Amino acid sequence: MSTTSLDGVGHDSAGTNYLNAKRGIMSWLFTIDHKRIGVMYLVTVLTFFLAGGLLALGVRAELFTPEGDLFSANTYNRLFTLHGAIMVFLVLVPAIPATLGNFVLPLQLGTLDVAFPKLNLASFHIYVLGACFLLFVLITGGVDTGWTFYTPYSSGGGADGHVVFALMGAFILGFSSILTGLNFIVTIHKMRAPGVTWGRLPLFLWAIYATSVIQVLATPVIAITLFLLMFENIVGIGIFDPALGGDPVLFQHFFWFYSHPVVYVMALPAFGVISETVTIHSRRHIFGYTAIAASSVAIAAIGFLIWGHHMYVSGQSELSGTIFSMLTFGVGLPTAIKLLSWIATLYKGSIRMNTVMLYTLAFLWIFAIGGLTGLFLATLATDVHLHDTYFVVAHFHYVMMGGVLFALIAGMHHWWPKITGKMFNESIAKVSWVVVFVGYNLTFFPQFIAGSRGMPRRYHQYIPEFELWNQLSTIGSFTFGLGLFMVLGYLLQSIFKGEKAPANPWGGVSLEWEALSPPVEHNFSGPVVCTKGPYDFPEAVSPVGHDH
Amino acid sequence: MNSLLLPLLGARAAEAAEGATFWMPPQASTTAADSDFVFYFIYWTCVVFFTIMMGAVGYFVLAYRQKSENDKVPLMKGSHALEIGWSLIPAVFMAGMFWFGFQVWIDLAVPPADSMEVRVTGQKWSWSYAYKHDGKIIKEAGADAECMKKVTDPTRDIECNKPLRVPAGKPVKLVMNSIDVLHSFYVPDFRVKKDVVPGRYTVLWFEAPEPGEHNIFCTEYCGDKHGYMYSKVIVMPPAEFDAWIQKRADETVDGPRPGDQIFAQEGCTGCHTTDGSPSVGPSMKGLYGKTEKLADGSSVQVDDNYLRESILVPGAKVVEGFAPTMPPFQGRLSDEEVSNLIDYIKTLAE
Fold first, then answer.
1. Cis peptide bond N-terminal to A147, omega within 30
2. Which residues contact residue A529 at a Cβ distance below 8 angstroms, ignoring those fewer than 6 apart?
3. Which candidate in A340, A448, A532 is best for mutational testing of the B interface (most B CBs within 10 A)?
4. Highest mean pLDDT among A23-27, A56-60, B305-309
5. Given 2.40.30.60, 1.10.760.10, 3.40.120.10, 3.50.50.60, which CATH number is that of B259-347?
6. Contact A384 B72 (CB under 8 A)
7. Which residues of A touch B324 (CB under 8 A)?
8. Which end of chain A is more exposed for a tag (fewer CB within 10 A), N or C?
9. B3: which DSSP letter?
10. Lowest-confidence range among A466-475, B107-116, B264-273?
């Protein structure tokens, strides 16, 4: 995507950039620069990830032995509730769109900022507010319901009433994602630089676009659920609580009608990152641009129709289960198309085995396992056996946590030079990759085995038959944690001691690589014009494909 | 027990059991083999596809690794033939998965007409079972006294919950209900699972062809002792089962049960001890006559009326330091049974 800046490459004589243009904590907290907002999101999200991760290590430590000996049952239940809620609501949902999305989106569009910069800042403040509110409620309320808040356990007993406030926290956070989504939709529609046609939109932005649409449409459902719960608690009319004549299964419908599409809010941006990294670092044009872009939109659409696959054994009708199973396979197809297109992109490429590519390949491995194991859970007969066992735990960690995290790490390394202006140490990064990849798989693969052999999830203690698989998993989790600390270490080190990054270290042709590293305050030194597609690398010679 | 080796041996021993494979526990119901067929159909499909995909990735990475910055790559933006091909082939396999899964699903949804019916009640944190035989209702609930003597770890006493006894070779239909929160009834060896929901009945059926013992797990999170809420299903030779149920019918007398029996059968022991140690709820030892401080700051003397109210509507006056998690027994116990239960609690006063 060759571009023309009016003043040439945009040398900034003063050496100022978005990081040093203004100084002081207030210049960060009240900035309307999308890049600074992206960085603040990144720091916040990673902090919550660290907290959620330490809680997970607590859970894994308890499960090292079959006896419930490390924590009391109640403490254990609060640990996994906090772990799940933090990871889902505070980490995975904003993990990519709010961090890398915020930073990269206007740059890839060749524009100054998002459409509504002040709204963007408001989204961040609302996110922080919602996060504090949710954490305060979960911790002081002693919520031990699991992140799914199923009624009637959540509406009575120990967590009495707190689920209303917890959902309120989720709703405040949801408001933040609605505003971010809205902002991104308008920005993509209205603020593309000349020459950035829909067909030249980087696939990362197609993914962010589809994600934003889901956020805007699905999040209001959590508000409806919240309203109904409050109505039940205050007026005493039975909606979900069987003691009042309500239906607890109805709550599950509401919950998953929101929470299932949210799975794609997490996954689609990850797909977007991989579409960028797999191309730039193999120097190949993406295989099937239209298919990948269209499958993002298809996944977003079908994602709204399959919430009931969480509920095959919940007591909903057998017919509903059958229809949901059929529809669920419908979402498997576009996902398979993406995976195969990424693999085909590597064919006859010029593949750089750098850290970004290693994390991209790890993503393909992990996401293939996550996606394929989803087939067992989409199928009715096998899901009856596997539902709510560790097989499900392993599956959604492979998809949500593995998929999102490995894409986030790939994306962070990919755009690190752009964000910080510094290069990280490739050798240490590669060693850490080995630890992270091995640790990850050792943590979660044994959980498939324990699960298919019958170990239920959310168990404080378990029968000794499952001990081996749990011990492997616990060893894996600490290895994984160690690897992630190594990543944190060399990334931080690079900020202070890293080599200075050139504007375009990877030879990318999408517009963000036209900006300096780190970019100046208003991104580009002059108007930007886009003249070719985001994957038209100079290495490409004479077309050999039959079409296009 | 904590070494890595022992469970490995244990796992190997388990694999020798009937129909057990690396991934699956023993097949102990008539539908388990069908369910496992679906599992392994998906499994091998996945293994093949995964190997092809990752094999391709591995080959591409080795064959097309960057040699120099000046490498040339072909301009290839896609191929409709390939894209259609790799959409259709997975679609065919997915249709197969859906169809096979659907067949077993239908089998699991329709209990045979000649099924023996057992009522299952889930509550925090035990299962109880009720049979109909000889015009009597036979309740199997509470802890087994023999087993309790052997248990040293008090947190594991739920292992002693009375098992679900069923005859081999006869379909059994469970009509299930919960008195408090969601639970889920899961027997891995049978490959069956169904949520147990307050306010409605859910149905699950199985037929175990051979005698044996199988674990029952609760698979819907239900609070503190969720991980301890297990029980066993004991599949008996039909003749033995008939003799057992007849014996139980003979033992069952109509009319109100004595207090100690109610205390054992209604799940009270799950949360209340009789030896003075606090558990999820206050201990019954020395309770009667005592003055309890309540969560709202007031206090109350434990008399007959307080006990009656606390059994029927437990949320009314909750003792300080305890969570209001007990389900109401209003409508579940007759007046006489409530009185008998109070009498029993009185005997624990000293």
1. no
2. A3, A4, A110, A193, A194, A195
3. A340
4. A56-60
5. 1.10.760.10
6. no
7. 156-158, 160
8. C
9. S
10. B264-273
Instruction: Answer yes or no: is A544 within a domain.
Output: no
Of B2, B45, B323, Cβ closest to residue A65:
B2
> Is residue A4 included in any domain, yes or no?
no
Average pLDDT on A130-157 reads: 84
B-proximal residues of A, 64-83, CB under 8 Å: 65-68, 73-74, 77
State pLDDT tens for residues A311-333: 999 989 999 999 999 999 999 88
A interface mutation test: which of B219, B230, B232, B318 has the most A CBs within 10 A? B219
> A372, B46: Cβ pair inside 8 Å?
yes
**A116: containing domain:** 25-514
Whether residue A457 is contained in a domain is answered as yes
Residue A540's CB is within 10 A of a number of other CB atoms, namely 17
Taking an 8 Å cut-off on Cβ atoms, the answer to whether A368 and B100 are in contact is no
**Inter-CA distances, A9 with A111, A515, A516, Å:** 16, 8, 8
Rounded to the nearest integer, the mean pLDDT of chain B is: 86
Give B67→chain A minimum CA distance, Å: 7
Residues A516, B209: Cα–Cα separation, whole Å: 73
B57, B78, B181 member nearest A346 (Cβ): B57
Please answer yes or no on whether A465 and B184 come within 8 Å at the CB atom.
no
- Could you say which of B57, B66, B182 has the minimum Cβ distance to residue A248? B182
- Whole-structure pTM value: 0.89
pLDDT for the residue A509: 93
* Least trusted range by pLDDT, from A2-11, A103-112, B79-88, B120-129: A2-11
Domain boundaries for CATH 1.10.760.10 within chain B = 259-347
- In total, how many domains does chain A have? 1
Q: What is the CATH number of the domain that holds A106?
A: 1.20.210.10
Residue pairs spanning A and B at CB distance below 8 A: 330
Name the residue of chain A whose CA is nearest to B55's CA.
A343
Q: State which amino acid sits at residue B320.
A: E
The answer to whether the Cβ–Cβ distance between B182 and A153 falls below 8 Å is yes
Domain B116-251: CATH class, spelled out: mainly beta
Q: What is each CA distance from B11 to A334, A469, A474, B17, in whole angstroms?
A: 38, 10, 18, 10
In a domain, A1, yes or no: no
Instruction: State the pLDDT confidence band at A144, using cuts at 50, 70 and 90.
Output: confident
CATH 2.60.40.420 domain position(s) in chain B: 116-251
> Are A384 and B35 within 8 A, CB to CB?
yes
B76–chain A nearest CA distance, Å? 5
pLDDT reading at B12 higher than 90: no
Confidence of residue B153 (pLDDT cuts 50, 70, 90): low
SS3 per-residue string spanning B191-241 = CEEEEECECCCEEEEECCCCCEEEEEEECCCCCCCHHHCCEEEEEECHHHH
Tell whether A242 lies on the interface with B, counting CB pairs under 8 A.
Answer: yes
- In this prediction, residue A145 carries a pLDDT of 84
pLDDT at B2: 37
Q: β-pairing, B164-167 with B231-236? A: parallel
What is the C-alpha R_g of chain B?
27
Tens digits of per-residue pLDDT, B182-219? Answer: 999 999 999 999 999 998 899 999 999 999 999 999 99
